């Protein structure tokens, strides 16, 4: 059997999985994300060596600006030690293995294209809600990388020009982390990062929590509308940790319809897209990175 090793590099953990060519996860685990490049490669090398005799290639999902053709991370986002890291070349030289690397938002889109809600869809997108707003655009059945490998960087959409700095961008206004923090702080919860407490307040219809949540979902619906008006997409698949909450997709759909209800011109001109949940949760980037490698 031909197997592969897939890594999902995050700010807190590096997740990894031994996977079959069909995308089945055979084993998976994680390690803490290092704070420097030497420790990063030490962690990766230790894992690869553990599986070296079982694998035919290595796939990576990474934050930042990634050249999928050359296998280079030009900018590592929050993980600045990944700037200008030549992943494909290093894996080839060190292990004589084929390798690929793809941006994490785009990896989530590829997972959906391969086996999820975007399978068979010509034009669609994933929107990944977390610290910021990640994304992946599928146009004519193919992942759109862009001339500078920046297509789908949804965090940098300008949403409110009256705000200052990054607070005017969707990466701040559409941040799930910020939304949860705001609810907890408003309710006086001691842990402002507690997503379960925030969503319990939403489910219990706490008025202050509901207002924050509804405004947040209106922001995501606005992002969807702007993308749809530009690209005419069939499906938007919403991912990220909070997507496990059924109320999220329901409320985004409701807010989208409210926007259209207040604007008959837009509702007449634009055919409404589907807004659904992604299919793979925390395993999406592992699966999408493997799909990039196989293709």
What features would you describe in this structure?
The chain contains ten helices and 13 strands. The protein has two domains: 3-103 and 283-294, Nucleotidyltransferase, domain 5 (2-Layer Sandwich), CATH 3.30.420.40; 117-278, Nucleotidyltransferase, domain 5 (2-Layer Sandwich), CATH 3.30.420. A hairpin with a 4-residue loop joins β2 (13-20) and β3. The chain is of the alpha/beta class and 295 residues long. The strands form three sheets. A five-stranded mixed beta sheet has the order 3-2-1-4-8, sandwiched between helices. Strands 11-10-9-12-13 form a five-stranded mixed beta sheet, with helices on both faces. The protein has a three-stranded antiparallel beta sheet with strand order 5-6-7. Helices cover 40% and strands 24% of the residues. α5 (176-187) crosses α6 (195-203). The chain has helices at 37-51, 87-95, 104-115, 170-173, 176-187, 195-203, 207-231, 246-261, 264-269, 284-294, and strands at residues 3-9, 13-20, 25-32, 55-62, 65-67, 72-75, 85-86, 98-103, 124-129, 133-139, 142-143, 235-239, 274-277.
